[in-house]
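Protocol step 4 of 5: obtain the predicted structure for the target chain.
Materials: sequence only (see below). No template structures provided, no constraints applied. The aim of this step is simply to have a reference model before the mutagenesis design in step 5. Sequence pasted as it appears in the construct record:
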Amino acid sequence: MMPPELARLLALLLATGCHAPTTDRAPLEPTSEAPAKAVLDPAQKYSVRVGRPLKVGERYRTRVRETVQIDERTQIEGEPDTVSRDREERIFEGTGKVTAVDAEGVEKAFEYRVGKLVSVVKGKELRLSEGATIRVVRAATPEEATVEIDGRAATPDERNAVSFFVSLTREAASEDSIFGSREPVRVGDKWRPNLEAFLKGSELVIPRDGVTGSMQLVGIRRSSLGDLREVRFEVSITNPLPKDLPPDAEPGPGSATQVITGAIMPDGLRVESTSTSTHHMELRFRRPKVKPSSFTYDETRTLEERLELL
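Step 4 output (structure tokens):
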């Protein structure tokens, strides 16, 4: 059994850790036509904008798949190890439309028509019927956001199933301010993303020199949408720890990583994105009159997204 005091800690890690694993399903197919690599002038430079907001009335087809695998191991001196594995999967396919934006032009409200929505968490499956309508209005916190299904308030499980493919809150910093290039770059060029903004609000304690990251323009793909920017983001964190670590817990080696690859239209709209992340944590406990114990946590998560304007 997991030490009781870790229950809240793990809930925190699941909510705030970097996102990532491999899935045994085939990856989502690109939404645009078959890739055609551009014949490039090596000296040509491209602006890389990221995360253009959708406009009111803009309709799109979206496909999103997330898989999560969590492995936990508890070791108590002189006793057999306790090992558990939990696997989660969420899939959404459907069409969406932005129905309102805020004063800065960022999406605030959405409507979706479900083609397929399946969520499997802790062995419990949730499905929404084909043709169901989902309405989402973002707020300052997830709890304050409005989520309705066919005109009724969504249940907590349904809210969780919806929140994996559409955020219930607006991020403090825009994607472009975090990932975009400050000036035009050549294919192959790397630049430093705004890691401070990327990590802002995290409930993890991160060592001052424990973060490295980069953004890269890896290629240009010709398409009817223009010259798609193929990009790659990487971040690695050494020994991240939750702020409310139990006082008698002695941290061992830990890490968090994330790699995001994607294709972006010239105006910054993301049409393809795959995020792969991992989180590893080790804790040891030594208490008076209690056998020494240790706990190991590993999470891997993959999030694949495809978007096609209609």
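Step 4 remarks: Residues 9 and 245 are 7 Å apart (CA to CA). Residues 6-16 form the longest helix (11 residues).
Proceed to step 5.
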